[in-house]
Amino acid sequence: MTEIYLDNSATTACSQAAADRVARLLTIEYGNPSSMHLKGVEAEKEVREAAAAIAKTLRCREKEIIFTSGGTESNNLAILGSALANRRAGKHIITTAIEHPSVLNTMRFLEKQGFEVTRLSVNDCGEISLHELADAIREDTILVSVMMVNNEIGSLQPVEEAGRLIREKNPKLIFHVDAVQAYGKFHIDPKKMNIDLLSVSAHKIHGPKGVGFLYSKDKTKIRPILFGGGQQRDMRSGTINAPGIAGMGIAAREIHENLDDDVQKMYALKAYFSEKLRTLENVRINGKTGRDSAPHIVSASFPGVRSEVLLHALEDRGIYVSAGSACASTHRADSDTLTAIGLDKEHRDSTLRFSFSIHTTREELDLCLDALSELLPFLRRYRRF
Fold this sequence. Notes:
Layout: E1 4-5, H1 16-27, H2 38-58, E2 65-68, H3 71-86, E3 92-96, H4 101-112, E4 116-120, H5 130-136, E5 141-147, H6 159-169, E6 174-178, E7 197-201, E8 212-216, H7 242-257, H8 259-278, E9 284-286, E10 297-301, H9 307-315, E11 319-320, H10 336-340, H11 345-348, E12 351-355, H12 362-380
Helix pairs in contact: 1-7, 2-7, 3-4, 8-12, 9-12
């Protein structure tokens, strides 16, 4: 049976070059990068080279890259670190209603600590209003945190315009962007876009799991949330994951080599797949499907069939998709994103996410569409009322 993997927003297959580099640092150059002997120096060199490769993709300096365990830690460090460092200036934070759980739950924690959080609403395509953002900024606002690409429906936020607005309204405000689903899909220039903090995860760009980074603009006021031996200039203590970091550096370099061509290919696949989905009976596409959205995510609702049922029916045919954010899948709850864009419960409960990578083909999408056209009428006959 042919395997068709359409859950690349959850994770991507690690590239062979990145995997080989990870293996080399686990078995040959296995020293601790903090050690002063040759084995440590070898590992440290790999870490520095990865930092240089990543910094080049963002047009920033190597010292502005803080290595973490992934997107969740990067988001926590950005939000908690800036909130703790700037609470004397104010305790008001702005975010959106459709953030990743690592942001939403961190905001809930801060509210319990006495911070006030404003959550910007979104339209039915999952986009914020710049006017609402401007109105929400106050003198005591210390942080704005906005996800660049929504992980469930692929909505694209006007990050560059938001950064410009924030600088005009309050130059001291810290602007954090969760770019986990955006890095490797768009050219991102934090300085040009007025971004102070930017979160990225390696396993979304064909790198290894368990590693990521936080871009932190030089002189951004932020405190560490992990304490120990003072690694990474006291910003993130603990022995750094040299194998993962080296693999991430390879993946970052690879994903940007043919970025424009790869993105155009994914947009073409998205347009094709979305058009074909609309020809199936009683299917709703959630969010936009054009160039004003992410190139790799299609969200669709199939009323009359619960998402888990359809997901496993596709799985039986070797087709792998998602019923929502992988970070919440083990304890599935109602989606904040789908609720925020106005979907009723029937549509929320029947939503699947299809997400592509640079390796996805039209032939794979055709096989998925054929499976859907066969499964949907059959499964809807057994709908429970």
